[in-house]
Write a structure and sequence with these properties.
This protein folds into three domains: 3-85, no CATH class; 156-383, Rossmann fold, CATH 3.40.50.300; 392-490. 41% of the residues lie in helices and 16% in strands. It is built from 16 helices and 17 strands. It has helices spanning 9-20, 53-63, 71-85, 156-163, 169-182, 202-214, 227-235, 250-261, 297-300, 317-344, 356-369, 373-390, 393-402, 415-427, 442-457, 485-490; strands at residues 21-25, 31-35, 40-43, 97-99, 105-108, 116-120, 123-127, 136-137, 191-195, 240-242, 263-268, 276-281, 285-288, 303-307, 410-413, 462-468, 471-477. The protein has a four-stranded mixed sheet with strand order 1-2-3-8. Helix 1 crosses helix 3 (71-85). The radius of gyration is 27 Å and the shape is globular.
Length: 491
């Protein structure tokens, strides 16, 4: 056959690719390739360590006897495939958990054969999902989970709790509620903060919790030094676990708030002048540490303190993790059983808590098991409010000033007048110097009080703003029947 009669390499590659792969795009415009009948999808431009579609295509062509092609032919074929895929229907890709048809959800086991767990109203099954129902995205952080085992005697959860050092039964039920929430792709869950004395096994307990979802390769990591690296790590996995936090900067606190409840990162796409790259993310977050210092009010509403205690009997790492790996299949199966039971439970949604989805999940857990998760969650939020107040001198001064306001009445002043009044109250007769970080202008005070509004409201002090013909004002009131703030803290 003459050179003119040979089929060009780009046409051979394109024909083979369309025979063996399905191509589609996401809402962000990224084109993915999915082998026929397999749920795992790879971006066609990826060059990551998990394997690119280019490499997958080259291996397939060689093994099926189609030949070995040079880079130019592959590039031209992939350029055409990408252009054709941009006209296809949009389909999302998911990491670890995904919504399915008919109210079901899926859990990716991270296996090469694509087997996953389908959690549906009647139970759960191990299946290979239809590629048009679920498309999994794999990264280097996607570990493999064992096949879950049926918990015939209902002891799987107890096997997990026996290995952890949770201090109270309330802490245990909150940890279970968080794990169930991690299996829901659309439910934002607060971030567990594992605390306790030195040697309480906080890091070990954190690893045990995340490895139920992420597999034995899941681990804790240090907090990145900048937001961009943190977002990159969050977007590449499902559960993000940060270990041994001792200080939390305002930027890190704000980033954690976005991770828990969801946000979008937009930056310039590489090798372009005007195009952008969008990354939406909302992920379960887990933290460990003895003390992180001052907690900002907006983050406090998104935290779930889990206290651990020092174990009476110490075990070697090898013994502990060998037992954990042995019981993990039955623990995962038991958690799936409990998830099905909780999702079927009927409960009212509490309307007074910010994380309403998680509060509703706690109420469902109570309806299914009577563990008292919702009461434990409310108590944990009260403890966090105390932590916020203890770390904020302005909040303490406002509560002290509110003691002189009669219930059912209010006091209205401009922000500058409030600043002078609160500053005088803090300095006292001894004329103590104002602390570092104290508001310097009325505008700064107004902004600080807006951030503290939920915390102060939980102590019976309502901060409101408004405007009259004379200008803007801040009003501090105590509802009728509210005890003095110091008595509320005593309770």
């Amino acid at each position: 056959m003459s050179e003119d009669e040979k089929t060009p390499g780009r046409e051979v590659i394109t024909e083979y690719a369309q025979e063996h792969f399905r191509y589609f795009r996401t809402a962000e415009g990224t084109v993915y390739a999915q082998k026929n009948g397999h749920p795992v999808a790879r971006p066609i431009r990826s060059q990551g360590t998990t394997g690119s579609h280019r490499q997958e295509l080259m291996v397939g062509l060689f093994r099926d006897g189609r030949g070995v092609f040079n880079g130019t032919a592959l590039k031209e074929a992939l350029d055409l495939i990408e252009a054709l895929a941009l006209t296809e229907d949009v389909q999302p890709v998911h990491i670890r958990v995904a919504p399915g048809f008919d109210g079901a959800t899926w859990l990716d086991l991270g296996r090469d054969d694509g087997q996953s767990v389908r959690i549906h109203p009647a139970g759960w099954d191990i299946l290979t999902p239809d590629p048009r129902e679920v498309c999994w995205r794999r990264t280097q952080l996607t570990g493999e989970l064992p096949l879950p085992a049926r918990d015939t005697d209902g002891k799987g959860i107890d096997l997990l709790l026996r290995l952890c050092n949770f201090a109270t039964a309330e802490t245990e039920c909150l940890a279970l509620a968080w794990l169930i929430g991690c299996l829901g792709p659309s439910v934002p869950v607060p971030a567990p903060f594992l605390t306790g004395p030195q040697g309480a096994g906080k890091s070990t307990g954190g690893r045990m919790l995340i490895r139920i979802i992420e597999g034995m390769s899941g681990d804790l990591r240090r907090a990145p030094k900048d937001e961009e690296n943190l977002i990159a790590a969050v977007a590449a996995g499902w559960v993000t676990a940060l270990d041994n936090l001792s200080h939390m900067t305002p930027d890190l606190s704000d980033a954690m708030c976005c991770i828990v409840t969801g946000a979008e990162s937009v930056k310039r796409a590489l090798f372009t002048d005007g195009d952008v790259f969008r990354a939406r993310y909302r992920r379960p977050l887990l933290l460990t540490g003895i003390d992180v210092g001052v907690i900002r009010p907006d983050l406090a509403e998104r935290l779930l303190p889990l206290r651990l205690e020092r174990p009476r009997v110490r075990r070697t790492e090898a013994e502990l993790w060998a037992e954990y790996a042995e019981v993990l299949p039955i623990v995962l199966g038991s958690l799936l059983d409990l998830t099905v039971k909780v999702r079927a439970a009927v409960a009212e949604t509490p309307t007074d808590l910010r994380m309403a989805d998680f509060a509703h999940l706690c109420a469902q857990l109570d309806a299914a098991t009577s563990l008292g998760a919702l009461a434990a969650y409310r108590a944990s939020l009260d403890d966090l409010n105390d932590d916020v107040i203890e770390g904020d001198l302005l909040a303490q001064t406002v509560l002290k000033h509110a003691e002189n306001i009669e219930p059912g009445t209010g006091q209205r002043m401009t922000s500058t007048q409030w600043l002078n009044a609160l500053s005088r109250l803090h300095t006292g007769e001894e004329l103590r110097p104002l602390p570092k970080g104290w508001p310097t202008t009325g505008k700064v005070l107004s902004d600080r009080l807006k951030r503290l509004q939920p915390t102060l409201a939980a102590r019976g002090v309502i901060i409101d703003t408004g405007r009259t013909f004379e200008g803007r004002y801040l009003e501090m009131t105590r509802p009728t029947g509210t005890p003095p703030p110091e008595q509320q803290q005593a309770f």
